[in-house]
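Hi F.,

I've been meaning to write this up properly since the lab meeting, where we talked about keeping a consistent format for the predictions we share between groups. The idea is simple: the sequence comes first, exactly as it goes in, then the structure tokens exactly as they come out, then a line or two of notes. No screenshots and no reformatting. I'm using this chain as the first example so we have something concrete to point to.
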Amino acid sequence: MADSQQPGEENQSLPFSFRKKELTPGLQSKNWQAVEAAILVEEAPRRRTWIRPALVTTMLVLALVVLTWWLQNRPALQPLMAELKTHYGEIKRVTLPDGSLVVLNANSTMRLPQNWTNEGDRQVWLEGEAYFEVAKKPATHQKFVVHTTQVDVQVLGTRFNVNTRHLQSVVSLEEGKVQLLFNGKVKEVIEKKTGNNGIRLTPGETAIVNPVKGTVIDENKDVVYHSGWTRNEFHFDHTPLSEVAVMINDVYGYKMQYADSSLQYRSISGGDLSAGNIQELVSILEVALRLKLTIIDKTIVVAKIHK
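Output, unedited:
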């Protein structure tokens, strides 16, 4: 039996041998430091953030205050709106839920809430021209308000015409009483001149509300002429053709073209001239003005009659 290998002796039967590297005190200390650092990283507890109870209470109180303020001051929810429009040359008659009658002129738009109640004012918003016969509400005393850019027309029960074309509002009162409350630039102009923010009309009066000129009250003309369009009637009182051309463009969408620019100053007079469409109106103008009016597409060509 072979003798046992003594400690410290190399095993001569192995084809290779291990070379031991001496571990210096400095290297040993560096290794231990690395091991300790790794252990600290693994065992370090996760840091937790705590909110103080007093801070939580303050935040809840602040949120409650903001919520209360918003509920008290939030704007009223806008009701669903219905919209009524007319095309050029079209007139519509509508009976509102309260029994009021509205006749909407051509090229006009009216908006109103889809659901009317017995609380608050009855309100419509108008662009263009309309005639109103407002039903009285003696039980609830609800006002009827027509909103325009320049003025709000407030009534209880009455008949009146409102025209909002050409950056001004013309309100003609046939029956009852109306209160006009000015808006926007008109309000600034009138308050500066008179110190008032509104006026009251009586039957037979027409108010012309203009953002530049202010307000003019006209009592010289019969107010029913302003609503003649509801009966297909036109009233002219030394009216120049240029003004007639503006009305025709508003209502029918036709423009006038003059063979001679001086023709626009020809005037026409006559009350209760009846015309149900643009062709009938052009025929009336031809006879009254002794001119030749020819419709070409959406243009009315005005010329002298050659004999």
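Notes:
DSSP finds five helices and 19 strands in the chain.
Residues 1-18 have pLDDT under 50 and may be disordered.

If this format works for you, I'll send the rest the same way.

G.
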